[in-house]
């Protein structure tokens, strides 16, 4: 799914999600992009050759950030 394909709809969805969950719009958008990149990597030919040392990717994988 590529929610970002329609820029205006994407902005609206980000705003609605931020409003609903009480987060900054920039945090919601960052989480969208991080999740998309991690999903794309996990489905690529590099999935079994990719390692993450720490930070956001591991926090997302282990559910340490509740966004």
Structural class: mainly alpha
* Total number of domains: 1
Largest pleated sheet? none
Q: What best-fitting shape do the alpha-carbon axes yield?
A: flat
Instruction: Give the N-terminus to C-terminus distance in angstroms.
Output: 19 Å
Radius of gyration: 13 Å
- State the share of residues found in helices, binned by percent: 55-70%
- Mean pLDDT, to the nearest integer, reads 87
Percent range for β-strand residues: under 5%
How do the helices and strands follow one another from N- to C-terminus? HHH
**Number of DSSP E strands:** 0
Low-confidence stretches: none
Instruction: Please work out how many helical segments DSSP would assign.
Output: 3
What features would you describe in this structure?
α1 packs across α2 (25-42). The chain is mainly α. It has one domain (3-61). Helix content is 58%, strand content 0%. The protein contains three helices and no strands.
Short description:
The protein is mainly alpha-helical.
Q: Which keywords apply here?
A:
mainly alpha, Nucleotidyl transferase AbiEii/AbiGii toxin family protein, 0% strand, transferase activity, transferase, flat, AbiEii, 67 residues
List the helices and strands and how they pair.
Blueprint: H1 7-21, H2 25-42, H3 56-61
Keywords: Transferase
GO molecular function, one term: transferase activity
InterPro entries: AbiEii
């Amino acid at each position: 799914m590529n929610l970002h394909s329609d820029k205006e709809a994407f902005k609206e969805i980000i705003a609605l999600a931020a409003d609903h969950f009480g987060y900054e719009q920039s945090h919601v958008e960052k989480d969208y992009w991080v999740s998309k990149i991690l999903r794309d990597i996990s489905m690529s030919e590099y999935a079994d050759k990719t390692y993450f040392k720490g930070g956001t990717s591991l926090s997302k994988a282990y559910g340490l950030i509740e966004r």
